[in-house]
Amino acid sequence: MAERRGKVYMVGAGPGCMGLISAKALHILQHCDCVLYDRLIGKEILNLIGQNAELVYVGKEHKGDVRTQEEINKILIDKTSRHKVVVRLKGGDPMIFGRATEEIKSLIENKIKFEIVPGITAITSAAACAGIILTDRNTASSVTLVTGQTAEGRLTKIDFPSLVKLNGTIVFYMTVENMKLICQKLVKAGMKADTGAIIVANASLANQKIVIGTVSNIAQKCIIEKIQPPAVLIIGKKCTSLLSNQTLFGKKVLMTRDVLGNAEFACKLAARGAQAISCPMFEIEDLTGSKDFKHVVEKIKNYDWVFFTSPTGVKLFFKSLKKLKKDGRVFGCSKIGCIGSETATALNDYGIIPDFIPKNFTSVDMAKEFIKKYKPNGMKILLLRSALAEKLEIKGAVTETAAIYTAKKIESSFSKIDENVDWITFGSSFAVKCFFEKFRPEDIQNRKIASIGPVTTETLKKYSVKPAVEAKEHTIDGLIESMENSK
Fold first, then answer.
1. Distance (Å, rounded) from C-alpha 354 to C-alpha 311?
2. Architecture field, domain 7-120
3. Where in the chain is the domain with CATH 3.30.950.10?
4. Which end of the chain has fewer CB within 10 Å, C or N?
């Protein structure tokens, strides 16, 4: 009897931002048995994979490969004999310079079923992040994708004269090492030295970098900016950014949230052409695994109102509910309140529509507005929040608090703040405190400071730091808007 084999899904993870992975890819990742993933697959994507899946790293470095392609093929075949659903997860789109050919050939030879799930390729995300139109009916009727690093490590197989004659947009993948030589060969083949060139590194991610120049100077500019792979080089007449007139385009913005918070923030900044610099000052510690939390869940339906104060609290609460094999029905007839539009959106994602959202997104304002609207004499109210949050009493109500997470200071890898940083952003008072335990106020002179709200601003003032802007809406979107409107 023939050995039964599982099915392989060749999945494109996109550029790395979790918001840019396809719905089908996400569904497969959450329900698969095993994932073989590459070097370019970051934590943001790995965190989307189902908890019970086996993870196998098969990353390849250009210099000093961890595994040979033959070894990867063998592992892939072997896993199909142990699992029903095996995912081969690749960055971008697996069919564009993803070395999928060798692996698919091996699957066919071994009569193993497979399916290809496309992903957003590097050039699509890079062009979007840099605000570049790849095609134009008048000046760029074609796009040519070229590898800047051939299997033999040579560029001799590339027909540069033909590329120049096409008179369209040219995109080079894997180009950092050979960028100077590529540009020289293009000019030698007849391309004008002042032709536009843009390189985008780590498109859509927290460490995204965009460098704008011409064929004659882009290589030198990338050396100055210390551009590292992965990066794509885009060359052509239409190689100018539509985002260049936006306030934040090309600005270096330092983020001080936790790693995941910075990643989400960075995606929003990247869409505006800003260069996000992740400087996490703390990490989130989940407290929902305690016996106290299980007790809270058991009695939560006995409260008249349950309040969530942050998106983080919402996500951790429902993640733990799932582990306990429970869902939103635990609330019974309790009404739900929350602070902030982002918290409301997080609740919406779990099928919960809040009954009350204060106009101003602070705990004190929430209490005042709630008292005025509901006159909560004798009501039982539960606040699900951070362990670091200040004590809050709602006058007339029996108020209880359950800490479902806390924030812990981490040692920053930054020894100093780059002098070229334009903005430093603070999304909480705790981030401010952690930051100034590491740095001095004089270390950030001549940088613009952005505060997410009045509580954070007051903490900044304790360090003699006056923010240039304070968000009117105390959310990340509000923070970005305040920076964009700054003169």
1. 13
2. 3-Layer(aba) Sandwich (3.40)
3. 123-235
4. N
- How crowded is residue 275: how many other Cβ atoms within 10 Å of its Cβ? 26
Per annotation, catalytic residue among 7, 33, 60, 238: 60
Residue pLDDT, tens place only, 265-288: 988 888 788 888 889 999 999 999
Please state the φ and ψ torsions of residue 141, each to the nearest 5 degrees: -90, 5
Query: What average pLDDT score do residues 306-318 get?
Result: 95
Distance CA(117)–CA(141), nearest Å, equals 28
Topology classification of domain 123-235? 3.30.950
Q: Is 231 helix (H, G, I), strand (E, B) or coil?
A: strand
What are the structure tokens assigned to 384, written together?
């699900």
Matching CATH number, 252-281+410-484, of 3.40.50.2000, 3.40.50.10090, 1.20.1290.10, 3.40.50.300: 3.40.50.10090
Whether the full predicted model's pTM is greater than 0.85, yes or no, is no
304 is catalytic: no
- Backbone phi, psi, residue 122, to 5°: -55, -40
Residue 219 pLDDT level (bands cut at 50, 70, 90):
very high
Closest listed residue to residue 310, CA positions, set 255, 368, 362, 372: 362
Digit-coded pLDDT (tens) for 222-268: 999 899 999 999 999 877 777 777 889 888 999 999 988 888 898 88
Question: Per CATH, the architecture of 285-408 is what?
Answer: 3-Layer(aba) Sandwich (3.40)
Orientation angle between helical segments 454-462 and 429-438, nearest 10 degrees: 20
- Tokens representing 30? 């959450």
Do you find a cis peptide bond into 230, omega within 30 degrees of 0?
A: yes
Q: Is 60 in the active site?
A: yes
CATH 3.40.50.10090 residue ranges of the chain are 252-281+410-484, 285-408
Which one of the listed residues 7, 24, 33, 38 is annotated catalytic? 38
182 in Cβ contact with 148 (< 8 Å): yes
Which whole number is the average pLDDT over 455-474? 96
Query: CA-to-CA distance for 301 and 293, rounded, in angstroms?
Result: 14
Nearest CA to 262 out of 251, 276, 247, 248 is that of 276
| Whole-number Å distance between alpha carbons of 379 and 333 | 13
